[in-house]
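Q: How would the structure tokens look for this protein?
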Amino acid sequence: MRRTRFLVCYDISHPKRLYRVAKTLEGYGSRLQFSVFECPLDKLRLAEVKARLSDILHHEEDQVLFVSLGSEASDTSLIIEALGVPYVGRTRITII
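A: Here is the predicted structure in token form.
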């Protein structure tokens, strides 16, 4: 199934929910900043992560944004430029 890259940003008002949202997103993509992830998701995984996050959020106080960056298979690469503190890409590892 074709995957789309999403920039997922969040603003969560309570520390416990903030932690749970961050931990959930770690299973779907790479953290770019404290409240920003880049997640390659197909339609099924997108629906899954939205459902999981929806169960965590307080819908009157919290917000999660999904910004489509286009197809993962496209010939454009993700370019991240930073002002101020340099951006350092993180590598994901799996611990079993």
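The chain has a mean pLDDT of 85.

The two ends are 26 Å apart (CA to CA).

Upvote if useful.
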